[in-house]
Structure formats: C-alpha cells, structure tokens
Amino acid sequence: MAALPEVEHPRKAFGWAARDPSGLLSPFNFSRRETGAKDVTFKVLYCGICHSDLHKVKNEWGNSTYPLVPGHELVGIVTEVGSKVEKFKVGDKVGVGCLVDSCRSCQNCADNLENYCPKFTLTYDDKYIDGTTTYGGYSDFMVTDEHFVIRIPDNLPLDAAAPLLCAGITVYSPLRYYGLDKPGLHVGVVGLGGLGHTAVKFAKAFGANVTVISTSPNKKEEAIEHLGADSFLISRDQDQMQAAMGTLDGIIDTVSAVHPLLPLIGLLKSHGKLVMLGAPEKPLELSVFPLLIHVFLTLLAGRKMVAGSLIGGLKETQEMIDFAAKHNVKPDIEVIPIDYVNTAMERLLKADVKYRFVIDIGNTLKPSS
Fold it and tell me: What is the pLDDT along the chain (369 residues), one digit of tens a residue?
C-alpha cells in the first residue's frame, strides 16, 4: 500500500525540533490540524523530557524521521473544543501522554488497553491515519481527540503532573496489574532515576514496604531520607543480596543498562514477580543452565515470574493521575526554559538530573520572528 502524501495543516504551530541524528534541537515552524468535532485543543504550558526523547532525537533506535518535535508528557489549558466533545470545556487543565490515537476496534482497545493496540499512534514521530506526521509537546499547542486527553485535577501542579503521563503510568500500571498495590507487601525498585523514584513514591502510596536496589551506594541517603524507601540494597554487595534472598513479593526493574537478572530473581519470594520496564541495548541473559545445578535452584524455584509492561491505557492513566492527586504523589522535577533543552539532553545522558526535566513551555517558548 502506497504511503499517503503529507498534508499541510491550516493552523500554524511553533516548537523546537531535531533535524538530524546529531539530536540538536532548534526553533521550528510547522502546522497542526483545525479542531475537529471530537478534538480538544490546548495551550501547552509544560512538557517533561523523557529518556526516550533523547533516544529518538539521536535516532538511537534506528526509526526516527526528521524534522522531529519530541515530547509525550505535555500539559496545559484547553482553548477550544469540538462540537461533539463531551468530557472537556475551555479552561480545563489537561494533558496528553504517549498516545494520540488507536484503532478503537480491536480487543485491546475494547478492554481499555489502547497501549497494546497493534495500530496505536504515538504522540510524536508517527503518522496519523491521514498520513500526516505527529509532533510532540515541545511546542505551543496541541490538538488531540478527546479520548486521548487526560484531565488534570486542580490540586496537582501542572509542572509536576507532566512526567506522570509517561513515567508515572509506566510504573503505576505494573504495580496494579501484578498485584503489587496491596498494603504490607514488600516491593523492590531497581534503579533510582526518572522511573525508579516515581515507582518508590507510588509503591509507598499503596502502603508497600519499599526496598531500593542500586549499584550506587551514594544513593542510599536519597532513597531513604528523601524518597521514603524503607531499605536499600547495593546490588554488587553479595553479602547484602544474600541476606535479602526470598524477601520481596515483587520487583520493578527500571534499569536500561545490561545487568544480571539471577540475583534479582533470588530476592523474590515464591510467586514473586520481576517486572522489566527498562530497554537495554543488548539482550539480558537468563541462562537455563543454573536451573540444573542445585546450588542455584533456590534462586529460581518457587513459581517466579519475569514479565514486562508498557505504559497504560487511557482509563488507567486517568486513574493514575487521580490517585497521584489524592495521595500527593509528585515526581521530583527541575523546571527549565526551552533554550536550555540541548544542555538538559546532555545532562540527561550523564544521569545528571533529580529526577525529571520539565520544560516551561508557556513562559519560555517564543515564536521566531
């Protein structure tokens, strides 16, 4: 089937885009569609910087197309609604996460799992059904079908709400689905970055006893004193890991670097779940051979599960935002102006942020003359 031609939309928009795999972002004029009957148009006020934005602007996954306007953690104020919009009105606080469309007809869509629809449309660097390019939240306004718009509660600050639309739902969904949302459970969190610190906050809000597992001893104070974790394990310390064997009901693994899984599986109780959220560049090893040797058997026996998870559907994302507002779950953020975005990307590459950059779009994005 031939690709549909790119259509020039009538509404002039402005943002920052990458033009090539250097990943350098700079001002960019483009266009968006008019507000359709089921569309919500909103002025973007804040947009979080996800680590996947860094991968995409540099084409590290090999599927980027340019020019590319990143951003799938965007929030703002509704300025216009279509004639058939039922859930939103002008002035509402809203946000858009990773998706802006899906087929609406498959079983996953029927089950409110648009995130697993085989034909979902990503918020940026994708194609709408008419063949036009999706542009993300590093921009002045957004037009999205109301089904993919999230209402932001009044008591949740917009700047802190932005990262919840990706990082928040990415950790909330597996905690809920795999039954790790019950008070009194012992939950491990591997890694203490944008996802990891948010996982700690949600798990604590669910009433879990939380153990942070990290290669960095210097993160212990931050994990316990600031984020409220109950305990801390240095994953390279064999004595610590041995002492904690069989103590966790589940583990949320947020690390995208290659790392060993067997020690983590050893931390699980029988029926425990190791849920992978990171995306390492190389396959992780889970050798069958240790299963045959008695000394390793206790690590793996007990009907343990290694699983994965990817964001959440729209119904669950709204549930997550409402839960965050009720329980005061807010990511730790560093708010930056748009002209700092390239420096922020360099710092993100070095993990030099606690824990999520959020661009102040509303006050700092100025159209080029």
Answer: 334 445 556 899 999 999 999 999 999 999 999 999 999 999 999 999 999 999 999 999 899 999 999 999 999 999 999 999 999 999 999 999 999 999 999 999 999 999 999 999 999 999 998 889 999 999 999 999 999 999 999 999 999 999 999 999 999 999 999 999 999 999 999 999 899 999 999 999 999 999 999 998 999 999 999 999 999 999 999 999 999 999 999 999 999 888 888 889 989 998 899 999 987 667 776 654 443 444 455 555 677 888 899 999 999 999 999 999 999 999 999 999 999 999 999 999 998 998 999 999 999 998 764
**Count of other CB atoms within 10 angstroms of residue 26:** 13
194 within 8 A of 331, measured Cβ to Cβ: yes
Separation between Cα atoms, residue 70 and residue 58, nearest integer Å = 11
Task: Centre a 10 Å sphere on the Cβ of residue 145 and count the other Cβ atoms it contains.
Answer: 20
Q: Using the structure block, give the residue that is written with the tokens 């597996």.
A: 174
In whole angstroms, how large is the CA radius of gyration of the chain?
21
What does the block give as tokens for 333? 């953020």
> Could you give phi then psi for residue 216, rounded to 5 degrees?
-110, 105
As a whole number of angstroms, the distance between CA 305 and CA 270 comes to 9
- DSSP conformation class of 225: I
Contact (CB, 8 A) for 69 and 136: yes
- Positions of E strands within 49-185: 74-81, 93-96, 99-101, 121-122, 141-145, 150-151
What are the structure tokens assigned to 340, written together? Answer: 């700092």
Q: What angle do CA 129, 36, 115 make, to 5 degrees?
A: 45
Q: 0.90 cut: is pTM over it?
A: yes
DSSP string covering 232-254, please?
Answer: EEETT-HHHHHHTTT-EEEEEE-
Q: Phi/psi at 280 (nearest 5 deg)?
A: -60, 150
The tokens of 249 are what? 């009901």
Closest C-alpha among 283, 264, 333, 273 to residue 309 = 273
